[in-house]
Amino acid sequence: MKIVSIALLLFFTMTSATVYSQSDKDWKFMKEEDGIRVYTRHRDDMPLKSVQVVTEVEARLSSLVALMKDSKNHHNWVYANKEARVIEEYSQFHWMFYGYSDAPWPVLDRDMVVEAHLGQDEKTKAVRSESECRPEFLPKTTGVVRIKDCHSLWLLQPLDDGRVRITFEISVDLAGAIPAWLMNLVIAKGPYRTVKNMTQEVQKPKYRDAEIDYIKD
Fold first, then answer.
1. Calculated CA dihedral for residues 134, 53, 119, 87, nearest 10 degrees
2. Mean pLDDT by groups of 10 residues along the chain of 217 residues
């Protein structure tokens, strides 16, 4: 179901580590396909399972960050994305982001506003991008369900062989009249497709050759 994947528009940054306070051992393996591993886990404060997607790609950190920050191109790789835009940019490392996803009838479309933070560890060069929903930042759109509770994490870890390990974690309450048990059956589809699309999109010359002065490759 496409509505699940609206959560994927949350990529980038973050301010709350609440989602990730649990131990790694709490993640339960779900599937592996095309070198992409998917895990899920329950949260007491969310009706839907959290999802973690892990893979490796031959790419530079600058290339991946350039792709992630190019909001006008999100529709080409973020699953079910219809609109994505930065609505306020405080710095290269902190911004407000709007995402919109149309859902299949009769489910209402969803949108969200998230606050995003980006950082890089000086020693390991790992890039961490986290986000958290800020539903009151923009007026609600008529006929669209505003997602109020969401958290996401992108972790990009450079490896010795010129590859990068990508870890994407997402937790979201989609709100509305969608049974949680039904959503949990397909919750991993959107995150998986987004990460798979990302590994392909980042190979395009526009991103492959990108240089970002505040990211150390």
1. -30
2. 41 36 74 96 84 97 98 92 94 95 77 96 97 95 91 96 96 73 71 96 97 95
CATH of the domain at 74: 3.30.530.20
Contact 71, 61 (CB under 8 A): no
pLDDT of amino acid 44: 79
Q: What residues make up the domain containing 117?
A: 2-208
| Residue 120 within any structural domain of the chain | yes
Q: What pLDDT shows up at residue 4?
A: 39
pLDDT of residue 168: 97
Between 61-69 and 189-201, two packed helices, what is the crossing angle to 10 degrees? 120
